[in-house]
Amino acid sequence: MSIKVVHPGLATSVQDLGRKGYFHLGIPVSGAMDRFACRCANWLVGNDENAAVLEAVFMGPKLTFNQDTTVAVTGADMTPIVDGVEQGNWASFTVKAGQTLSFLHLTGGARIYIAVAGGIDVPEVLGSRSTYTLGALGGFEGRLLQADDTLPIGHESTRFVERHLPEALRRPRDTTLRVVPGLYWHRITAESGEQFFNDTWQVAPEADRIGYRFKNGTPLEFVEREQPFGAGSDPSNIVDGCYPYGSIQVPAGKEPIVLHRDAVSGGGYFMIGTVVSVDMDLIGQMQPNASTQFVKVTLEDALHARKEYDALLQQAKQHIERCGVTT
């Protein structure tokens, strides 16, 4: 089975849950920006949670199927349409051979996840099917989808199972991002650190899979020091260090950048802290100019947040498995 790309949308790529174990070599984790939505899309069509899906940003693709299959769309609010008939989000639906899947305009969020029974069957590269476009690695020929591409689909069951996930079991799009202060917190004054968490920030236009820049907050004030050998001349420069997933660098102390799935693994900017891992999904659904606040938390708070996130994921999975009705 295969899918023909009639129109690729704005930026559509093949993604799974990511590429682990190569960060020390400078190869980022990649994978879905909203991992909760990605997992749920796969469960809704009966796939393993790590099956490859399509991630589409701001505008959905137009796809024609050559065989009957089951599809689900999760994530942002973008209604799927099959040959002119609207379908539900966060629910499985059938697409018949020869039919075309397209989408209405985006009304909320930023990214949708399109799962197809059997998964997108591109080759694994370093243990993942995720696309890393900067390195031309993985996915479909290491790039975003283009018109006339043909996507192979893995083996699937021909039986349709009706599944859905109610809104109560989806993650709300919170307007705050929890942050654990980092090793370089001492580089800014106490007053500046407090102001960073008091400010309301807006997502800048520079917001993509590499990182999200935030604007309109108060510039940071640095503690004066003699720059160490090997660091740049700006107060925000450090001797090169590792960048954890979710870390927040602030070049020149002006606009924080939260490093996301395709970010580099190290560099010469200090990091004010790290967004807790479970809130990275929320960033992936933010549109430019969306407002947010950073909230200071402890490592214990972050671990508790992960436990709550895992519990919600488990509830979602159990509901999807229970609600299946064969037709």
Automatic annotation (TrEMBL):
Pfam families from the UniProt entry: CT_A_B
Domain Carboxyltransferase: 24-312
The organism of origin for this protein: Enterovibrio nigricans DSM 22720
Cited InterPro entries: CT_A_B, Cyclophilin-like_dom_sf, PxpC
Listed name of the protein: Biotin-dependent carboxylase uncharacterized domain-containing protein
SUPFAM superfamilies: Cyclophilin-like (SSF50891)
Sample GO molecular function, one term: ATP binding
UniProt entry keywords in alphabetical sequence: ATP-binding, Hydrolase, Nucleotide-binding
PANTHER family xref list: 5-OXOPROLINASE SUBUNIT C
